[in-house]
Amino acid sequence: MSAVTTERKGDILVITANNPPVNALGFDVRAGLEAGIKEAQGDSTVKAVVIRCDGRTFFAGADITEFGKPLQEPGLPTVVNMIEACEKPVIAAVHGTALGGGFEVALGCHYRVAVPSAKLGLPEVKLGILPGAGGTQRLPRLAGVEVALEMATKGSPISAKQAKEYGIVDKLADEDSLTDDAIAFANDVADKRPLPVTSQMTANAEAGVFDAFRKANARKFRGFEAPEEIIQVIESTYDKPFQEGAERERQSFMKLIMGTQSAAQRHIFFAERKASKIDDVPDDIQKRDIKRVGVIGAGTMGGGISMNFLSAGIPVTIVEMSQEALDRGTGVMRKNYENTAKKGRITSDQVEKAMGLLTPTLDFDALGECDLIIEAVYENMDVKKEIFGRLDKLAKSGAILASNTSYLDINEIAASTSRPGDVVGMHFFSPANVMKLLEVVRGDKTDKDVLATVMALAKKIRKVAVVAGVCHGFIGNRMLMPRQVEANKLLMEGATPSQIDKVHVEFGMPMGPFQMADLAGVDIGWHRDPNRIEDVRDALCAEERWGQKKGAGFYDYDEKRNPSPSPRVMEIIDEWRAKTGTPQHEVSDQEIVERTLYPMVNEGALILEEGKAQRASDIDVVWIYGYGWPVYRGGPMFWADTVGLKPIVDALEKHGFTVSKLLKDKAEKGEKFN
Ligand code: T1G
């Protein structure tokens, strides 16, 4: 079946592409479009052209799987320029998501007709590149510089309605008659001489718009190369002839796509999708039907977890021990929704709809109606085993019993039931209604259909799910531990909290180990005996320096929670350096990298060795979506490949670490993780 076919509808030639799953603009599609335009040009009875796609969406962009391979002509810029140069009006019929090169094809057309549910966007920046088929030239001319800067540097799609307001879409069609409406539009303009976007006046730009845009987005773009490159391309070409601008765009495109950041971001694009696949579970396995979710615990985690399902339209029964705790929990959920509505991200109707799906109750037995029950209570194995013992008796047959534990043994919890096959870990990351990562912890006896059901549900609630095996801390928190141990040691040896955190923030992390401790709570896991002081952390906790929530932790905080280095903390650290007799030395930033980041790679290799993660790219996904690892570095294992495994092994051995067998073997063989 050809990827592109043509069909006459009266005077109109309809060019249809069909390249599942998303009509990516691979070679066959590009060649087919080229042939279709040539057919229209060569047939005097053709008065106008409609370009459309079968399936779920208009072109979703260039075929990312072709990147890195020799380009097969015609390249996409050539095809888009051909469309634009056609002497007959070409109309794009847009549905689904016209993204990247797909949007650029539409911009090369002379008109755009779209259904209201369509979205149009330039997500190339999320792959570390830029619109490389004229998007940086046509969009400023069509919709203005500000719209082009916003769309191209942030990569978020806009609705067809918004696109019409910007002058990008010429007509909104009915959802169920797009092709007919596009053909009718084509007939209306058939006798008009097509006016290519690039023949229009160059774009106009307010003075200072580029520097103002840079300043307003400096924090968001920190560390990324592509956004600044895009700003420079538009800034240097918006008032120049199209050909000159197109050449500048091509140069920047080539520079970015050859770079490490783009390789990292493309790696994560595919890694995120690969993570949803479980090697020994067929995609088409029958999944369980989840009509109602039960959540035990209406605290921070239980409330956040519940919101994910409510927002996806799934009813939730939430159980607490006291009315006061229940009211507090549901109040926090409502407040969270209302805050989101204040930002314009959801409507007040959506708030009421979500909250309307919530059934708060003190009646534990109400969980008997649920198809999935998620326990989100205190991190204590005895408490969890008691709860699962009760669930075993009251939950309906086939209900999935999940724990939100962040490190406890799922096998031990499962053993407290007569149905270990129904038991699984669902480790949400706080705040659970915001963080995208979900670690799905596979017990030794967890049934395959339970895993498949939870993975599919994760996609429905817009989470990125990664399967982890049972071990202390699963994948993410397990790798956090060696980082924290070493950070504490470096503190004793001469480094300061600020220096260590600064190295991590400059690396691209949202915050360093001590900033993170202050945010999460220095007192998490503390024995709570102020008289038992065995290290710096105990000393801080004994003085109620529990972190941001107390206005003081490793840092001092003002009323707006702005941190500043704390003289008192340095006194405590100095006391403990003396008390333990720890030899002091000048700690370099490089040593901090080698002793806090390299051990994470080593732990990741152990996780792979033990089979607690399916693939190295899964570990990368965990750290991007669970901890804010900079996506332009591709995750810990991808980043290790870019550093080189041999230098990492040498540094780990220099610092006295025991290097995992897998890491050592790969280093010796010159292999990579990904
Ligand atoms: N190329 C190749 N494969 C793609 C693809 C693409 N552009 N987009 C998606 N796929 C695959 C994906 O890997 C998965 O495969 C399947 O399609 C379903 O995707 C010149 C150079 C369109 C919103 O960045 O945002 O154009 O895992 O699971 O959740 O300027 O896919 O099933 O084997 O994501 O419904 C710009 C990327 C490219 C869009 C659909 N375009 N795609 O989401 O399904 S660069 C993009 C998406 C470019 C030009 C430049 C989403 C989607 P598999 P999915 P979904």
UniProtKB/TrEMBL annotation:
PROSITE patterns: ENOYL_COA_HYDRATASE
Subcellular location: Peroxisome
CDD domains on file: crotonase-like
Predominant subcellular localization, coarse grouping: other
Pfam families registered for this protein in UniProt: 3HCDH, 3HCDH_N, ECH_1
Keyword Lyase tagged: yes
Domain 3-hydroxyacyl-CoA dehydrogenase NAD binding positions: 293-468
Domain of life: Bacteria
Keyword Nucleus in record: no
InterPro entries found in the cross-reference section: 3-OHacyl-CoA_DH_NAD-bd, 3HC_DH_C, Enoyl-CoA_hyd/isom_CS, Enoyl-CoA_hydra/iso
Every 3-hydroxyacyl-CoA dehydrogenase C-terminal domain range: 473-557, 592-653
Pathway noted in the entry: Lipid metabolism; fatty acid beta-oxidation
Keyword line: Fatty acid metabolism, Isomerase, Lipid degradation, Lipid metabolism, Lyase, Multifunctional enzyme, Oxidoreductase, Peroxisome
Family named by the database record: Belongs to the enoyl-CoA hydratase/isomerase family.
Subunit record text: Monomer.
Name of the protein this chain belongs to: Enoyl-CoA hydratase/isomerase family protein
Organism (species): Stakelama flava
Lineage summary: Bacteria, Pseudomonadati, Pseudomonadota, Alphaproteobacteria, Sphingomonadales
